[in-house]
Amino acid sequence: MNTYGRFPITVTKGKGSYVWDDKGTKYLDFTSGIATCNLGHVPEFVKNALVNQLDQLWHVSNLYHIEPQQKLAKQLTKVTSFDQVFFCNSGAEANEAAIKLVRAKANSENKQPLIVTFKKSFHGRTLATLTATGQEKIQTGFSPLVEGFHYLPFNDEDALEKLNEWQPTAVMLELVQGEGGVVPAHKTWIKKLVEICKKNNSLIVVDEVQTGIGRTGTLFAYQQYDLEPDIMTIAKGLGSGFPIGAMLAKEHVSYLFGPGSHGSTFGGNPLATTAGLSTIQYILNNELLTTISDRSKQLTLLLQKIASQYDFIEEVRGKGLLIGLKLNREIASTVVLESIKNELLILTAGPDVIRLLPPLTVSEEEILLFVEKFEKALKAAKEC
Ligand SMILES: *Cc1c(COP(=O)(O)O)cnc(C)c1O
């Protein structure tokens, strides 16, 4: 169905930071499949693990134990503050699972479930997750929405007082709003949010579908905040491009899911969890997290220099290698189109924000090549 406004190229091959179209043209890819191919395209380490698994077992029901699934759950709980993992196939499904778990908590206490989310957030396209998403353009045309959601403005400390009035079961948020414009949460705002949630016994759910798997410079973004969430959802980068999602929770909530509470035919599939396990292993074994911070500094400095030369660029913002350029004109998509002409792929996050998501393995030289192509695109967009 015609659910995407597609750009006029067909991508047929990828390797590292580059993709090729069906005519053989090579593009520098600063989208990484929207924060999915975090290790670049077709990373050897993950490919070898997948090829090996292809020879062993493709699928078996969750009615049986699955080895790579158990290994990935062990690995994820070892490197985070969570105790248990539920596997699914996408970000929206991970958030659905989180919403169900939050409701299970309210139900177990005979309370009315209420989840507070934030304006300009993005949590997915299923009915519950589009309701959680604080953007009218995502919700319009799909009423009736799901019950039990309230919204507050992001990064607004005074607005948090509402939480005392509403006493929600949970608060759900992104630590850098991705689709909503690449907006990092302020540390002081998170501190206040945590205090209020603790006082009211509200759960904290972080949606790390976009920010997770090294994207912001730590394995997960919450690790840069004074914050121990009760629930975390991940997906995008977890499988290096292979579809997989997961909902992680602390034991004091995860126990509410027992046999029959929730399920997924493909969730935790041997191939998907092999991709997930090898992706995490690669990141942890290769000091990638230190390099991300160096590349982030390099790219941010170069972008700030560029921003000072173009009056339509207002701000460079983001975390790690999730970077946004806020424009004071709604020409983000023009810049994207001009970039394609210069064999560079980039993204928008709304009409006035350019979003850059290079692979976490991007080299210094590739960042310099990006700057060369991006400046040409900006010059052309300026004339439009
Ligand atoms: C992409 C995204 C989702 C939805 O993930 P899908 O895999 O497309 O369902 C949810 N939350 C955030 C923060 C995202 O960036």
From TrEMBL:
Keywords associated with the record: Amino-acid biosynthesis, Aminotransferase, Arginine biosynthesis, Cytoplasm, Pyridoxal phosphate, Transferase
Entry keyword Cytoplasm: yes
Binding site for N(2)-acetyl-L-ornithine: R125, S264
InterPro entries (UniProt xref): AcOrn/SuccOrn_fam (IPR004636), Aminotrans_3 (IPR005814), Aminotrans_3_PPA_site (IPR049704), Class-III_PLP-dep_AT (IPR050103), PyrdxlP-dep_Trfase (IPR015424), PyrdxlP-dep_Trfase_major (IPR015421), PyrdxlP-dep_Trfase_small (IPR015422)
EC id: 2.6.1.11
Subcellular location: Cytoplasm
GO CC terms, sorted: cytoplasm
GO BP annotations listed: L-arginine biosynthetic process
Known catalytic reactions: N(2)-acetyl-L-ornithine + 2-oxoglutarate = N-acetyl-L-glutamate 5-semialdehyde + L-glutamate
Requisite cofactors: pyridoxal 5'-phosphate
Modified residues annotated as N6-(pyridoxal phosphate)lysine in this record: K236
Co-factor: note: Binds 1 pyridoxal phosphate per subunit.
GO molecular function, one term: identical protein binding
Binding site for pyridoxal 5'-phosphate: G91, A92, F122, D207, E208, V209, Q210, T265
Recorded metabolic or biological pathway in which this protein acts: Amino-acid biosynthesis; L-arginine biosynthesis; N(2)-acetyl-L-ornithine from L-glutamate: step 4/4
PROSITE patterns membership: AA_TRANSFER_CLASS_3 (PS00600)
Additional facts recorded: May also have succinyldiaminopimelate aminotransferase activity, thus carrying out the corresponding step in lysine biosynthesis.
Family note: Belongs to the class-III pyridoxal-phosphate-dependent aminotransferase family. ArgD subfamily.
Summary of subunit composition and partner proteins: Homodimer.
Protein name in UniProt: Acetylornithine aminotransferase
Species per Swiss-Prot/TrEMBL record: Sutcliffiella cohnii
Gene name tied to this protein: argD
